Amino acid sequence: MSYTYEFLKLQNGSDIRGVAVAGVPSEEVTLTPAAVEKIGAAFVRFLRSHRCEEKKSLRIAVGHDSRISANVLEKAVVQGLCAQDATVFLCGLASTPAMFMSTVFEDMKMDGAIMITASHLPYNRNGLKFFTRQGGLEKEEIKEILRAAARSERIEKKTDSRVYPLALMPAYAAYLRKKIATGLGCSEADRPLQHMHIVVDAGNGAGGFFAEQVLAPLGADIEGSRFLEPDGMFPNHVPNPEAKAAMAAIQQAVRDSHADLGLIFDTDVDRMSAVLHDGEPINRNKLIAMMAAILAPQYAGSTIVTDSVTSDELTAFLEDTLHLVHHRYRRGYKNVINECIRLNDAGTVSPLAIETSGHGALKENYYLDDGAYLAVKLIVAVTAAKEAGKDSAHYIAALKEPLESCEYRLAIRETDDAPGYGKLVLAVLKQRAEEIGIHAAEPSYEGVRLLFDHGWALLRMSLHDPQMPLNLESRKVGGCREMGKIIKSLLKGFAYLDVSEL
C-alpha cells in the first residue's frame, strides 16, 4: 500500500511531477529512473487496454524540454516502453503541443506520445505528460497508470527493441508557418512577416524554435530575441509568463529592440503571453480579451470558457463589446478545455478555452493548449493591423481593468483531510455571508464567490496543495483590504486555516 502511495504522490492533476535532481535542501528525489521505467511500461499497457488493443507493437513518440534531468529520464522511459515491445521514436528537444501533434500528423500517426517536462517548475523538478490521438490523459487515467506502475515487477531490459529518431519539431514548425501564411492570405514564399519585428523570450526552455524555425523563415526580424538557447538551469529568469521578472524581461526586450511584438513562452511552450510595441503586456485578462477579439468576427455570439479568477471587467468586454458569452468556469487548464468540449458537443459554439495563466486551447486546433498556436493567431492579427495602419491595441481598447486585485493563499494545517476541511470552510463562509447580507454568485463552479458593491471575493480549494486561495478584485481604493477584513471575520473559529495574511 505504501509503495502505491509513493507512486500516487507523483500525480499533479493530469500530469506526473516530482523531484528528479538531488541537491536542493529538504527536497528528496521522488521521480527516479526506476519509477519512470515502470511508468513508461504502464503507459503501453494502458494504451493496449483503452486505445489500441488490436496492435501488437505500438508506436510511441518521446520528447523533452531543456531540463538537466531530461536525458536520464528519457533513457528510463524508453526502457520501460521497449520492455513492453513498443516501437519508440525519439524527438529530442520538443514542445508539449508538438508531442500531441505527433499523433495527428499524417506521416507520423503515433499511437501515443510522452513529453518529459515539469513546465515552469525549478530545475530540480521534472515530470511526464501523456497523449493519445484523443488528447491529453485525464486525472483518473493518470492515477490508473501510476497504480499499474506501482504493481509492476522489475523491468526486463531489452536491447533489440526498435528505437528511431523522429524529426518532429521541423514538421511542427512547418505546420505553424503554414498557419501564419494562410492567415495572412499568402504563401510562405511571399515571406509575409518581412515587415515585422518580433522578439521572443524562450526563458532557456524549448521555445527558441519559434523564433528560428517559424518567424525567421517567414521574413520576420527576430533581432533582440532573448534566452533562446536551451539551458536546464534557467539562469536568466523562471520560464513562466505569470512571473513578474519574466514579463519584465520581454517588455524590456521589446523596448530595447523597438519591436512590433514580443512573445514569451513557458518551458514546454504550452503557455504564452505577449507584449505590444509600446510595452503593454498582454497577459491574464488582456490575453483572454485579445484572443476573444481576434476570434469574435468568425464566431459571433459564441461562448468563451475561462477559469474562475477572471475579472468583471473582462466579462463586460466579452459580453457588451464583443457580444459573446462569458462562461466563468473552474481553475485548471484541463477543466476549462473539457468544459469547452462539452459545450460544443452539446451544440453551444465555444471556440476558445483559456486560463489567466496563459493556457489557451482553440476548437480549431484540436482543443490543444498550445502557446505557439496562440502566438500564431496573435501574429496574424498584429500583422494585419499594421498593414491596415492600425495600432494592434485597438483590439482591446474597450477593456477596463479592476482598480485593485490581489491573491492570498490560506494554508490548511494539522489535518489529514484538507479537501474535507476546505469543503466545510466554504459551506460555513457562504452561510455566514448570507446572514449579514453578502450574497454568493450562482452558479459557482468552484468555491464561493461573494459579491460586493465594488467587487468580488472568491475563496476556493487549491487543485493540488493544502491551501485555500482567496482572490479579490475591487473597483475602489482600499476595496481589497476591506473585503479581506470582512472575510477574515467570517472565517473566525477555523483553527486549522491560517488567515494571518488577511
Word description of this protein:
The protein has 502 residues and is of the alpha/beta class. It is built from 14 helices and 21 strands. It folds into 3 domains: 2-166, Alpha-D-Glucose-1,6-Bisphosphate, Chain A, domain 3 (3-Layer(aba) Sandwich); 171-396, Alpha-D-Glucose-1,6-Bisphosphate, Chain A, domain 3 (3-Layer(aba) Sandwich), CATH 3.40.120.10; 404-490, TATA-Binding Protein. The strands form 4 sheets. Strands 1, 2, 3, 4, 5, 6, 7 and 8 form an 8-stranded mixed sheet that branches. The protein has a 5-stranded mixed sheet with strand order 14-13-15-16-17, with helices on both faces. A 4-stranded mixed sheet has the order 9-10-11-12, sandwiched between helices. Helix 1 packs antiparallel against helix 5 (139-151), helix 2 packs across helix 3 and helix 6 (168-183) packs across helix 7. 51% of the residues are buried. Belongs to the phosphohexose mutase family.
Instruction: State the name of the first-level CATH class of the largest domain.
Output: Alpha Beta
Assigned CATH superfamily of the largest domain: Alpha-D-Glucose-1,6-Bisphosphate, subunit A, domain 3
Which fold name corresponds to the CATH topology of the largest domain? Alpha-D-Glucose-1,6-Bisphosphate, Chain A, domain 3
Task: Please tell me how large the radius of gyration is.
Answer: 23 Å
- Count all strands and give the number: 21
Query: Into which percent range does the helicity of residues fall?
Result: 25-40%
Number of domains: 3
Which CATH architecture of the largest domain? Answer: 3-Layer(aba) Sandwich
How many strands, what sense, and barrel or not for the largest sheet?
8 strands, mixed
Q: What is the number of helical segments per DSSP (H or I, 4+ residues)?
A: 14
Mean pLDDT: 95
Low-confidence stretches: none
Assembly state of the chains shown: single chain
Query: Beta-sheet strand percentage?
Result: 15-25%
Structural class: alpha/beta
The best one-word shape is: globular
Distance linking N and C termini: 40 Å
Keywords: Phosphoprotein
Protein name: Phosphoglucomutase/phosphomannomutase, alpha/beta/alpha domain II
Organism: Megasphaera lornae
Domain Alpha-D-phosphohexomutase alpha/beta/alpha: 12-151, 194-279, 284-386
